[in-house]
Amino acid sequence: MSEHAALIAPAAAEFAGILRGIGETEFAARTPCAEYDVRALLNHLLYWGPWLEAAGRKAPPPEVATGEAEAALVGPGWLDVAERQTARLVDVFGTPGAWQGMTALGTAQMPASIVGDMVLGEFVFHGWDLARALGRTIDVAPEAAEAVYVSAVAMGEQARSMKVYGEEVTVAEDATAFERALGATGRNAAWTL
After folding, report:
1. Any bridge partners for residue 111, and if so which?
2. Which segments of 31-174 does DSSP mark as H helices, in order?
3. Cβ contacts of residue 49 below 8 Å, gap of 6+?
4. Which domain holds residue 25?
5. Is 193 a residue whose pLDDT tops 80?
6. For the whole model, what pTM was predicted?
7. Mean pLDDT across the stretch 30-53?
8. Where does the Mycothiol-dependent maleylpyruvate isomerase metal-binding domain start and stop, copy by copy (predicted)?
9. pLDDT for 131-171, tens place per residue?
10. Higher pLDDT, 112 or 192
């Protein structure tokens, strides 16, 4: 949805602020993503960012020599790389055109709006994951919370089958849109270190 383009920059700014608060001593901290500690989650973000950017530009995917698990992208200078990658994603997905038509994420053809929602979700959900791992909070705008909730519900079944989301977590009837979004992705809003 091209109207979600306006949500990208504020979500990215919040995400980047969380990245700047991560020190090497926190790399081994657990995150709400059971398979990732902080270092592995940062590696995940650094690995997939260029793929998302290429999809937004409707360009060929990056040429990579290894898969995510074998990549070692969190070395000296990782924060600078992550901030530049975040800025490029904002440049691409902060414009409505990136959300229109079809694109490819790797070899999979899909509506560009789905990739845009993935980028917004990366900033919001993985921003929350990292913030929780550090014992911090994240400020998610109500419009962004509603957008990632709608997207998480729409992609839920397929994402769970691909092990991208965990089993849905039941939330209270009076849960916020963001708490509902977290639950839809298999995250527990009450998760603590």
Report:
1. 102
2. 38-57, 78-93, 112-121, 127-133, 142-161
3. 82, 85, 86, 88, 89
4. 2-184
5. no
6. 0.94
7. 95
8. 9-131
9. 999 999 999 999 999 999 999 999 888 888 888 888 899 99
10. 112
In a domain, 123, yes or no: yes
pLDDT at 94: 95
Rounded Cα distance between 167 and 192, Å, is 18
Q: Is 179 contained in some domain?
A: yes
Considering the domain boundaries, does residue 13 fall inside one? yes
Does some domain include residue 192? no
To the nearest 10°, report the CA torsion of 27, 20, 124, 127. 20
Report yes or no: 160 and 183 within 8 Å, Cβ to Cβ.
no
Structural domain count, the chain: 1
Residue 168 tokens read as: 């849905």
As a whole number, mean pLDDT of residues 185-192 equals 92
Question: Distance between CA 130 and CA 19 in Å, rounded?
Answer: 8
The token duo for 126 is 């993985």
Q: Please, which residues bridge with residue 56 across strands?
A: none
